[in-house]
């Protein structure tokens, strides 16, 4: 299933432990895709472990690349974040250049999608790492959304609230200026109701931490999202 | 004439003086387009002056935006540089965000083209300004070209040698990895032979400084480029 049609995705952190039973429930939940990605302590071993344990299921798998040393063949998609509100070129295109110099000649570009990240929670690890430490205003978010769609023609604009639940008005503002680029919402969804609310605004809703805290709640988000009509 | 078919363009610096006679000769030379752009002392008055004096001719006009305060309606195209080898996010997407916040709601996006710049001459003003002070290697250039085409899907990859004549082998290396993105070459072309050489490798050749130093030589580059078959 093409990531451009995903409504719901689970994001698994290769640095965290998870049981085979939980993985099976997630993979067979009806979710549209599973994203493997995290910020800290991402190792090739961790990525390969999840890949091996998930590949038996039919669900599409995407690797969100945060560390070039933890990249492996075998995924359906490779999501490449570029942090639009980083203060350091390293996170905008620096590590990307290193990766392109090493792997550029062997990439299957149809499997690659660049994600224009806008990090909304300055307290989160990703914000601290990339220097995205100012809270973007609504005007900033709309500007970054237009940048993603029109200047860089990115397939994905990713509003990352990481651990906090976002402001639906602000997410709507981003949605209102996107036509071609997909709006992905991630962060702080802990209930079916929250998942449904964001699914009514964003094209794709990503469920992360609650997987590790309350698997049942996490699984309930699948049907909640599927019950909502996708925005245009 | 669509900029995606330009083989030859003149670049005029709004901070430099030029006579009406010279402008007429350039505009009616058979060039495919005129780009208004520079690094230092770009003012709205300077831009409007060139616009007013050139708009009577049929040649397409593009404004290469370096300063948001010097942007005006009336051009056919707005080229937006993003400096891929800058060390400061300001030149990658920072001033872009400011511009999008101010003008994003009124842009005609079909007139806008983002140029992925790779600045090859660390001594030039643009390099000093943007912190692009390391000389990119061949591997860097190939990496940036792939970044422009695949990660950011930019319509233009611009190798800017600014005042120095480039290495055809290195320009060829960039060309060899581009399929959708146009390769634009600029810098140091002072003769018809040099223009022809770069036109055999790059899609578009930009002629700048020699306009102000030796107009006759500048005009000779038009036929020289047109005599060369465009690379794929």
Automatic annotation (TrEMBL), chains A, B:
Pfam families xrefs: PcrB
Amino-acid positions noted as binding Mg(2+) in the UniProt annotation, renumbered to this chain: 13, 39
CDD domains: PcrB_like
Cofactor or coenzyme needed: Mg(2+)
Class in the EC hierarchy, top level: transferase
UniProt KW Transferase keyword: yes
InterPro entries (UniProt xref): GGGP/HepGP_synthase_I, GGGP/HepGP_synthase_sf, GGGP_HepGP_synthase
Residues reported in the UniProt entry to bind sn-glycerol 1-phosphate: 11, 158-163, 188, 208-209
Catalytic activity: sn-glycerol 1-phosphate + all-trans-heptaprenyl diphosphate = 3-heptaprenyl-sn-glycero-1-phosphate + diphosphate
GO MF, any single term: transferase activity
Keywords: Lipid biosynthesis, Lipid metabolism, Magnesium, Metal-binding, Phospholipid biosynthesis, Phospholipid metabolism, Transferase
Position of the signal peptide: none
UniProt pathway annotation: Membrane lipid metabolism; glycerophospholipid metabolism
Entry's EC annotation: 2.5.1.n9
Entry-linked HAMAP family: GGGP_HepGP_synthase
Similarity section: Belongs to the GGGP/HepGP synthase family. Group I subfamily.
Assembly and interaction partners: Homodimer.
Job of this protein: Prenyltransferase that catalyzes in vivo the transfer of the heptaprenyl moiety of heptaprenyl pyrophosphate (HepPP; 35 carbon atoms) to the C3 hydroxyl of sn-glycerol-1-phosphate (G1P), producing heptaprenylglyceryl phosphate (HepGP). This reaction is an ether-bond-formation step in the biosynthesis of archaea-type G1P-based membrane lipids found in Bacillales.
Official protein name in the record: Heptaprenylglyceryl phosphate synthase
Organism of derivation: Sporosarcina jeotgali
Organism lineage: Bacteria, Bacillati, Bacillota, Bacilli, Bacillales
Gene field: pcrB
